[in-house]
Amino acid sequence: MSDEPASGPSPDAGEQDPSVTTSGETTGAECPYCGSENTEREHPRGPSRCQSIHYCNDCLQQFKKFE
Length: 67
Known about the structure:
The protein is an all-beta fold. Helices cover 0% and strands 24% of the residues.
């Protein structure tokens, strides 16, 4: 027998880490370049805790959004 933990997902693998969750939506942020709402949140944290990184699927630009 090994002292290593069993491989596989942890019991709470479906839960998101609360240190990286934001109140913002993951889709629908308005792109500041083209005005489209066809956007996705790429990362819940940007350069600061009150910003998130989004990507516009229409003009293909990345932008920051204040939460």
